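Margin note from the TA: students keep mixing up input and output lines. Inputs are the sequences; the output is the structure of the whole complex. Example:
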Amino acid sequence: MRITSASIQDTFWQNYIDLVRQTVIPYQWEALNDRIEGAEPSHAIRNFRIAAGLEEGEFGGWIFQDSDLYKWLEAVSYSLRNHPDSDLETIADGAIDLIGQAQHENGYLNTYFTTKEPGKQWTNLYEAHELYCAGHLIEAAVAYYRATGKRKLLDIACRFTDLIASMFGTEPNQIRGYCGHQEIELALIKLYGITGEERYLNLSRYFIDERGSKPNYFMEEWERRGRTTIWAQGTPNLEVYQCHLPVREQTVAVGHSVRAVYMYTAMADLARLTGDVKLREACERLWANTTLKQMYITGGIGATHLGEAFTFDYDLPNDTVYAETCASIGLIFWARRMLQLEAKGDYADVMERALYNNVLGSMSTDGKHFFYVNPLEVWPEASMKNPDKHHVKPVRQKWFGCSCCPPNVARLLSSLNDYIYDVSDDGKTVHTHLYIGSDLRFETAGCMVTLKQRSELPWGGRVEFTASLSGKADRAAFALALRVPGWIQSGSPALKVNGEIQNYRVESGYAVIDRVWSDGDTLEWLLPLETMLVEAHPLIRANAGKTAIQRGPLVYCVEEADCGVPLAMLSLAEDPKLSEHPHPDLLGGCVVVEGEGIAIDISAWSEIQPYRPRQKQGVPARIKAIPYFLWGNRQPGEMSVWLRD
Amino acid sequence: MRITSASIQDTFWQNYIDLVRQTVIPYQWEALNDRIEGAEPSHAIRNFRIAAGLEEGEFGGWIFQDSDLYKWLEAVSYSLRNHPDSDLETIADGAIDLIGQAQHENGYLNTYFTTKEPGKQWTNLYEAHELYCAGHLIEAAVAYYRATGKRKLLDIACRFTDLIASMFGTEPNQIRGYCGHQEIELALIKLYGITGEERYLNLSRYFIDERGSKPNYFMEEWERRGRTTIWAQGTPNLEVYQCHLPVREQTVAVGHSVRAVYMYTAMADLARLTGDVKLREACERLWANTTLKQMYITGGIGATHLGEAFTFDYDLPNDTVYAETCASIGLIFWARRMLQLEAKGDYADVMERALYNNVLGSMSTDGKHFFYVNPLEVWPEASMKNPDKHHVKPVRQKWFGCSCCPPNVARLLSSLNDYIYDVSDDGKTVHTHLYIGSDLRFETAGCMVTLKQRSELPWGGRVEFTASLSGKADRAAFALALRVPGWIQSGSPALKVNGEIQNYRVESGYAVIDRVWSDGDTLEWLLPLETMLVEAHPLIRANAGKTAIQRGPLVYCVEEADCGVPLAMLSLAEDPKLSEHPHPDLLGGCVVVEGEGIAIDISAWSEIQPYRPRQKQGVPARIKAIPYFLWGNRQPGEMSVWLRD
């Protein structure tokens, strides 16, 4: 694909991107420096200072704590690209200098093993996250180079990667292992992309190809360590780490969900870059399994907190759910790569679903509080008093000892401009995956095109594109492929070109408008944005007899603040007569959906009867639903996505 | 209360009692002797042999393993009382001799501390179960003495108890503690009952009164142990052990559910024997909380497996449930004592509910397999593949490392004759709590009365009583108080005396028939046994929009074997037109309930849609429900008590 640049110009998203830039990034910098009062210290910067010999002390935080600084630097890079900020860049340069000081002569870089277990490097790939941290270093380095043109972090990353490349592989003197937490695989693809060095592509391919081969590396490593582990008990669990089978033989998403989707992301990249058909088929199989059988309506994945893992097909409990923020971010990474492999609307539908619901909902409207777990049903008293639900928090948390999610949100939202379009190598086809207001610049046949997208989403369905041409030609021939969203319930989007209705053909979920564009051409794309009642596949036991409300890409939910409790008493009327109401003052502005419901008549119950002959007494009730991504921003209370029929 | 004797003559129950006598007791003896192939060894007998110096080796099993032998002896005692068996008695005598050999000079008796941690006695009341094991020794001793008249085990128990009484109390040289697992409190009441020794009553009262006083004994003990524990981590959890407050101030059932109900049982005994009003009020408060807000429709209690504990009011999830067998047995113990405190139909209703559903369902029809956890909803694949449900087994297990439940079932079922009647001290009132065929013998004003009860329950509603008089008088005046079951949906039981319909008055849930009885008088008590649809209190979120089927005391469920899967696809028709069908060949004979339902039309779904616009397409389906207590006796499959409306 051709390198293009898009910049976001969108009221809805600009809010979030500004929040990341103005609040999340500075707040996280304070956190990395242990300066947030009342929060667990991160230790991240201090670990680097100790490793660099600038400070005495002991390593603190998780074994993979370095990755927090790298993820922050990656988010900073994206932010700088869109919004230059010399003060922030100076801080980042300082952090990069510190990283350089912590790097060994031979390129090795990991503060845990440098300060706490020197000599034990590469002895516990199963748990110790060394290659994982290297992967985040690489991602940060690539992003920082792209944003600033500065090579220092990229050189640090390349030196470390070259060491890794010399140590890992199938040669007799090499370690024939791979990381317990996939990440470096996808990072190496990025490093290959920016440097053009085939050895980075090959190293990624080695890690992917080697995974799951027999005899199993983690089993042998565990034996060599005298069967000791850091956290895990007993024999290594190969399914949790997706190395139970060679990746090309995997058919079902299993194990730790973040590890899984990070791996699938790299697999999709490799399938595209190498034309590996078996790998591509594995990606398609795993995609189908994940998104058709193991995905919540919010785009959440991972049904259990034990192991933060996938369970099995159609097991999607709403209340004991995990649906980790990072897992949905990883799903978005993967969807993005699948789109590069093949422009299919389905991939973008899932990407949009996870983005607008699970991921957006994970951050509070103040940008300082985050959900790890994104439940579809919350009973705050159960979260407190039933230990099976302790992991489900009714309010977003300030900062975490294991702080993977907030920096991941930051790096996704600040690079959102990379998720909207794909322009083909010849500049002749522009796929629009997401309807996010933005200016895309690309070149086609010597003509510089600026395509302005303006979108009312998620509140309205009107999208407008305007083409501005510059350069020697005053006309440009290219096809604009516009995604036909999967959430359209009835009808199809109307298309107007320069005010006139036009027909269009649909290919793989995209409306293709193939024409010769003139400067100032305007295209209107009118998406029918209806409120829709949704039912789940009957094999998803948890949603039997239940209905969700969706409007455009937004999944809705009911909250105690609007509907009282228990929410379970409420059901939808046979014809709920849903209506839409814009509330500019509610939760920063949103469209509320209201309708008719029935509530169990609790006044007809006495406390002396836990069970009684069925009477099915209902009283009319009003249902008021808000977008899921805004839940939990008022008083803590019950919340539910699924309503009884 | 007057000591009376009832012997069961009942086809339905005799099956179970025979199963206990012929299968469970011999099988458990083999298990105690580690002779069950393929099962985890119990170590119980071996531990006693090691403690007695008859064998070399190391203690095995749980720290409270001794109690397994005691509970077995208690079950054997009840069995011998009803069904003398000299071979079994010889085996029991041998076991008792062994117990005697393991007892210390000073009366101390516990094989764990004798063999594994000598010198550490009484240093970890919080976890080590020493007084708990003593309690089970006492219960076995009382039962064996009552059954056989042999004093040996009773003497062993009294010697140990006298040691405990000298060591525990409020005197300066005494340990001011109590057991982490309540049990001895209720056992001491029994010992007082058989010996008449006030010091045993006082010791029980001391344990109950001291519990929850400040400063907390377990906190101090934990500090003395250098903050070490065996299993529990961190600070002692006082709520789990019900010592967060003095018992008279407790209002809500909290913590480990078996510990809780064992304690409440002793509290009810003490309230009755001492006339302690505050204690009685505490019992009544805790009873109301437990049975109105924290009890499953099956009589199960304890909503979470983490801590095997109560959670909070109305939190009764059907699928992640615990509802341990032992907890329902403890609830039956407690109900029995509440009935002795005050004959109220509500207590017997709960007793009957727990007995016919949770407890009876815990044992397989072969008497060799048991449930610990008694779920109300099972999805076998989730039990295997979702770790949040690993504790929920879709099939009964053979024997357990921690084998509390099977011996508890055995001792309850073989003493079931003690749960049917209460005869007042003056012999003038006979309360019938349970409709279980049985012969009750009691004396009133010099007349020996044999009251024969014959009952069709649980399959039919007809109950018949016949009085036989012997002795000097040929007439006897006494009131027969017959419980009016809470499960009667409409109408009231018809009463016939010698074939003629009679009116009666109802007091506290009992129909009182006060008359002068002649030899041969017959009373018919005709309970309207209808199949009933039941709804749960709206605050029980898990059952919102759901209905259960109950017929008489039996809760029903649907199983995959009859209804296919997923069961969640099934809902009851608006009018399900339920009908009853006796199936003499199904699961040992039962009445099946059938009706009309609606199933989601899965044929209208394609796999490529996990979610779609709601269509609510249903197809007619047949519902076939079986008694809950018989679930899981066919191929492993889905099961559900609650059906969608």
